[in-house]
Every structure is written in C-alpha cells, then in structure tokens.
Amino acid sequence: MNRRQFLVSAGGTALAGMALESSLFATARRQTPAMKKELFAIETQGKEWSEKPENRNKPEAKILAKIATVPQCLWIESKDLTALAKAVAGAKAKKQILGVVLYYIPNRDIGQHSAGGAEGVEKEKVYQKWLTDVTATIGQSDVVVIIEPDAIPHLDELGKEDQEIRIKLLQAAVKAMKKNPNARVYLDAGHSNWHPPEWTAKRLLEAGVKDCRGFAVNVSNYRTTKEAGDFGKAVSILVGNMPFVIDVSRNGNGPLLKVPPGENDWCNPPGRALGVLPTFVTGIDHCDALIWGKHPDESDGECRGGPRAGVLWVKRAVELYRMAEELAREKAKTPKRK
C-alpha cells in the first residue's frame, strides 16, 4: 500500500473527510524532515473483518478498510509475539518504521476494562522475561515504542510497595527497549485531564524518562490536540525540554463535554471523531509526532454497548469515521480567514 506512512496533514485540521477522497486520500505524500522513512501500516482487526467474503460488499467494509490504511501502533499485550514478529518482518521488508505499544505490566489498568498483564506468583519475573522476548523479536529494527499506557497515571492508586515495583518494572522496560539503537522510546504520561504537569513530570523522572527519547500523551484518550500539546509542553519543560508524541486517533472533535451522571468521558464516548493523520510535522514545540496509538475500530471496554476492551466494534468505527466526515463538510463550508 502506498499510504503506509506518516502522512502530513495541515496544522491540526481534523482528519475529517476520509470518505471525501479529495480531502484525505489525495493528500500529497512526502517524507518529513524529522523522519526519512515511512511508518508501517499493521494488519488491524477492521482490515481483517473487511476482507472476509461475507463482509466485502457491506458499506462498513469500505470504511474499515480505509481506516486501516492509516498507520497505527501494534499493541503487544500477551506472551504471544506472533503478530509482532510478522509486523517486524513486514516493516523491514518495506524499509519502514513500526509503531509498538508495550501493554503487559502486572496489574494492568488496575483491574478495569483492560485488566490483565503479567500474572502469577512471580509476575515481575514473568514481565522481565517478556521484555527480553520482545526485545529479541524486535532486534535492531526501526521502531517507535510507547511504554505501558496508564501505568504511571495509575501509580497513586497502588500501595507503596506496588508503586515501587511498578517504577522498577518501567525502568526495566526502558532499559530493555533502549538496547535497540534504532528504537525511539516514549514513556506514557497519561493525558491532560488526569494529573497536573508537576505530578506527571516527577513520576516520569522516577520511571526513567531521561533514558528515553521522551514521553507520550493522550494515548487512547480524546483530548484535543491543542490541549494535549499544551500539557505536553508543560511537562516537557519540567523534564528538561524532552520531546513527546500525541495520540490523535480519535480526538477529531475533542472529548465528551456533557457527561451524564454516573458515566465518564473516556469509555466509548458518543459523538467522537477520527483525528488528524499521523505526521512528524506537528507545529508544536517539542512534539515529535502526532500518532494513531489507539485503534479506532476497537472498543474501550464494556460500556455504552461496547464489547470488551480491544475487541473490534464495527459500529463505533463507522461512527468515528462519519463524524470526521461531517466535520470535513463543515470545514469546507467555513470561509477561510484572510
């Protein structure tokens, strides 16, 4: 596929209009100053679903197939590294960069929708062995690695001993990934509506961010690129002006603002839209890239009618796409400022 790359999109414009061929898929492709290689597009659940004979002629199939052409990060969340090995080989064959998210830390998501991670009496050793296996599978391939979404923001919800263990495991993850000289490693820092920059910076430093390329914000969340960028810049200053990346996969029209009592704004919120295309040209100080970390075709969890976290949800993917399309139409009608 020719579109398997970090595509350049103009200054924060919503990815709106994926169905509008002229506004997205006719976008000029060019390599960016920050990175000379393209990003590899992994095999998503949506792509697999769209290619099944019983689905090929459904209108949803075309939408999911288009979403799959946009490069997205591969989530490594179990001992099975088959998909990782396949993606590494695919990216190497095309001389492209693979985006990877490590997501296997013990007590992952502190028992919530994405609960799991390394288990057992010696789960810390299990995790470190897993890191060794992941490192061996990646080898010296060109990769962008995001380490353990939400692991740092959840620290205060753990006991003191468990906090110390988690910090050590995050340090171990950083150390393992940095064995690859071609890895650009980012520690997850949560999002702008969670902890203040001061708290976040302190925890990032404890977890070893100084040994990384930088940190990641807004992974799997919906905060606007402007808000996420301001948060990233504030944290960056506190950790020595380190770079960061922003997950923009589903933030096209920002977070849900009117949250009904008893609900939240992060688990399958309705009315959201796909975000801007991934790019290394961000226009944001200290921001290395805008990425698609979370897969738009996957559920946040069993809430608002969704399946388990990480499971394909066709209806939601179509909703995100169509809302982006609507935003594109609105933008096209808005007169440009002189």
Shape, per Cα inertia axes = globular
What is the H/E string?
HHEHEHEHEHEHEEH
CATH homologous superfamily classification? 1, 4-beta cellobiohydrolase
> What do we call the CATH topology?
TIM Barrel
Strands of the biggest beta sheet: in what spatial order? 1-2-3-4-5-6-7
Portion in beta strands = 5-15%
Helix content: 25-40%
Query: What distance lies between the first and last C-alpha atoms, to the nearest angstrom?
Result: 38 Å
Structural class: alpha/beta
Query: What is the CATH architecture descriptor?
Result: Alpha-Beta Barrel
Could you name the CATH class? Alpha Beta
Instruction: Estimate nothing, just give the exact number of structural domains.
Output: 1
Describe the structure.
It is a single chain. The protein has 338 residues and is an alpha/beta fold. It has a single domain, classed as 1, 4-beta cellobiohydrolase (TIM Barrel, Alpha-Beta Barrel). The chain has helices spanning 45-50, 59-68, 82-94, 123-138, 160-177, 197-207, 225-238, 314-333; strands spanning 74-76, 98-102, 143-147, 183-188, 214-217, 244-247, 287-291.
Which descriptors apply to this entry?
single chain, alpha/beta, 7 strands, globular, 338 residues, TIM Barrel
Concise account of the structure shown:
The chain has 338 residues and is of the alpha/beta class.
Secondary structure elements and pairings:
Layout: H1 45-50, H2 59-68, E1 74-76, H3 82-94, E2 98-102, H4 123-138, E3 143-147, H5 160-177, E4 183-188, H6 197-207, E5 214-217, H7 225-238, E6 244-247, E7 287-291, H8 314-333
